Amino acid sequence: MTSINPTLHIVGAGAIGSLLATGAQRQHLAYQRYPRTIANSPHYARWLDNSKVPLSMQTAQANVLAKNDVLVLPLKVYQLESALSYWRPYLVHSPALVLLHNGMGGWEIAQQILGPHYPLLLATTSHGAFKQIDDKGKAFITYSGQGSTQIGAPNKGNRLSPPLSDAINLLHNALPPVSTPDNIVHALWQKLSVNMVINPLTALNHIQNKHILDSQFSDVRRALCKEFVDVANACGLVFNETKVHEHVLAVAKATGENYSSMHQDVLHGRPTEIDAINGYIVEMAKKKGIHVPVNTLMVERIKALNL
Hints:
Elements (H helix, E strand, L loop, with lengths): L7 E4 L3 H12 L4 E4 L9 E3 L5 E3 L15 E4 L3 H11 L8 E5 L5 H9 L5 E6 L2 E6 L5 E7 L3 E4 L9 H13 L3 E2 L4 H22 L12 H17 L6 H14 L6 H7 L10 H11 L4 H13 L2
Parallel strand pairs: 1-2, 1-5, 3-9, 5-6, 6-7, 10-11
Antiparallel strand pairs: 3-4, 7-10, 8-9
């Protein structure tokens, strides 16, 4: 079962998924959206040039996907198990699956549900987008900053099968640029190094990203980075403590006016991704016998906010 033109199937109604749908709309690519509720689904997007891009409000019903379709899950890690379990019956032709989330652990969840040989891509993006409500009560997204997306198949480097390469090309056509690093797992750990500093500190202190550079956070920043490097290197990756800290500062400065996703989750009383970020470091540290008291404290303090 192969359709002439592949379709992007985008699960959820989050900002990044909606941004991807907007890119597909602008490029006249076939796409379907699967929001939990229509009320949460953005009706349009404000692009970088301030143009208004309407989005299809047709709520798709899940059906068996064609082999050359692409299913994108721009969800929180804690949402993946239920989402993958729901979609599993519709993946009989093994279309490419893209996990696009903060933190770690999604790959392991997907393997448990779909098996170790499913054609899976892991991705991380630095595009900026956030959801708003207009004066008519309609949800929309604002594309707040052009970034890029890194994507790849774990443990395969750039040796990608044609279906996975085609899926990456489709994503690049919808929302460029998309690159394929030699080691996507390393790239995801690098993103983790940024999130494990910026997310909890901005959430706990109710601050914008730029304030991470303040001197009052110097000690905790460096401690988090040291713990990260100790754990990452023990897991077979290669990171330098000084460079990790410099990268965190650079991202905090570049995204200075933004509020992190964890800050927004705490502000609006939503579950956070702390288990997939600092909690993942704590979990890996336990497996390697490494003491990570500062990351452990971040997990405890964020979870205490939800009590």
